[in-house]
Each structure stands twice: as C-alpha cells, then as structure tokens.
Amino acid sequence: MANADLGNQTSITEFILLGFGNLQKLHFLLFLLFLVIYIATMVGNILIVVLVVADQHLHTPMYFFLGNLSCLESCYTSTILPRVLASLLTGDRTISVSGCITQFYFFGSLAATESYLLAIMSFDRYLAICNPLHYAALMNSKFCLQLMASSWISAFLANCLVIFLASQLTFCNSNEIPHFFCDFSPIVKLSCSDTTLIELLTFIMAFIFTVTPFLLTLSSYVCIITTILRIPSTRGRQKAFSTCSSHLIVVTIFYGTIMIVYMLPDNNTLRDLNKVFSVFYTILTPLVNPLIYSLRNKEVHKALRRKTANKQRAFCKS
C-alpha cells in the first residue's frame, strides 16, 4: 500500500478477485472442470483455424470469418481462464491494479471485436441469401480483409481511451472485486476518484460496439428470414436456413447472456446469478462455438474427413 493525499485513505496497489470464494470445498472440482473446458476450447477453435487455412474448399468468405471467430475465441478465453485456474489451484486470488486493468483491456477489446465480427458474419449470410447474384463480386478477398481489419483495429484502439482513463483512477478502502475476472463495473465501484467521464465514455463505447452491431445483426436476420419464407419449396427453405442456423445459434447465446448479465440489477441477491451467466458468455460460449459449427456444418465435416484420409494415406505410404 502506498500513502496518498486522501486523508486517512490509502491507495490500493492490488485487488482480490473473490471469484468462487464461497465454494471453497468445490475449488478442486471447479479447477478440473475449467481445465477440461479450457483444453477443449483451445483444441476445438485451433482445429477450425487449421482446417480453414489448410483446406482450399474452405477458402470462402463464410469460413474466413469463421476462422477469425475461432482465433478470437481462443484469445478471449485465454484472457480469463488461465487466471481463474491459477486462483483455484493455488488459492491466490490477488491481482495487481495494472494487471487487472490489462485483463479488462483485452477482455473488452475482444468482446467488442466479437460483436462486430458476428455482425459481419450475419451481413455475409444476408448477401449470400438475399443477394446471391452479386455475392461473389461484393464479398471479394479485399473487402473481407478490410472488414476483419477494421473490426479488430477499431475495437483495440477505442478501448485504449477507456484504459487510459482507468489508469488515472485512484482506488482506496475496499480492494475486493466480487467477480472471477476484472470487469468494468466492479473496478469503477472501488475507485475514490471522479468516474463520471470514464462511465460516460464506456456508455458511448458500449453503444458503438455492442448495441450498433446487435442492431445490424438483427436487421440482417429480419431480411434473411423474410427472404427464406418467400422461397416456395420446403427443401429450398431448409437449405437456405441451414447456411445461417449455426451462426444464429451463436448470436443468440452471445447476446442473450450479455444482455442478462448487464441488465440484471447489481445487488447481493442476484450477484451469484450474474456470475453464472458471466461464465456462460466468457467461458462456455468460446467452447460451444466450434461444437455448433462443426456438428452442424457439412463442409467442416468433409474438410475434417479429407484431412484424416490424407494423414492415413501418408502413414500407409511411410
């Protein structure tokens, strides 16, 4: 602790992430559970990235975006789960103020990137279903790269403003964060500085990087569903819907859990429920995304079978 010019208050240099502290008897079981989830998440998402890069049949805009999503999910879960696993295993729940702000930076930037990535993927499906004749011309390689680069770069640069203001805050009195990772609200509530500016900026950022892509995604799917319902044959409707059903499930899980977490009142009664839903969108969503896409996507199945067959032939030749 370092003395500060705040009367009898002291400036805090580290936080305590309370996490699952009220479940101490289950810490080892939670460690094993989250370890299995982390390994499965990394293996599943990396496998999809490898398939998209290595299989020429998957060199299309849809799978280019899917590969980016899987790469993002690997980074996303790695900002939170390793710290949770270390805490559950060692019992050390402390994290430095700078470490906490850094974790929030990567978490917030990746979450913002994912919001726009999901919007881009829904726009891709909109063009493929509602405007198929112009799809190849519009969704060319250059345009796809521009969309991806803009979503990644804008999210990380915009979040720098929030992090700069967060680094100027002074924290005093309590240093306990009632969460398993460093989220914005719990951090700001511990500050004894004026947080008006950073809260206003975060509200604007949330609108730009969460509400706006959600509305874009929603409008894309309204157009998609309207177009699908106009298809005369049942088989045609099923085929059209199958190309976007996986993405629709992922979007529903992602935005559904985020809305529940950030719209629930922040009180002691609902705090544990908030943690449960936070686990869904920070830990379980990166796990289920590759499962949803691999189980429901025939092209991914074919690519996996081709790679398996090639390896078997190479093994037999050797």
Q: What is the compact description of this entry?
A:
The protein has helices at 27-54, 61-78, 81-90, 97-130, 132-138, 141-167, 184-189, 196-230, 234-242, 245-263, 268-296, 298-317; strands at 2-3, 10-11, 14-17, 94-96, 176-177. It has 318 residues and is mainly alpha-helical.
Textual characterization of the structure:
There is one protein chain. It is built from twelve helices and five strands. The chain has helices spanning 27-54, 61-78, 81-90, 97-130, 132-138, 141-167, 184-189, 196-230, 234-242, 245-263, 268-296, 298-317; strands at 2-3, 10-11, 14-17, 94-96, 176-177. The protein has a three-stranded mixed β-sheet. Strands 1-2 form a two-stranded antiparallel ribbon. α4 (97-130) packs across α5, α4 (97-130) runs antiparallel to α6 (141-167) and α4 runs parallel beside α8 (196-230). The chain is globular.
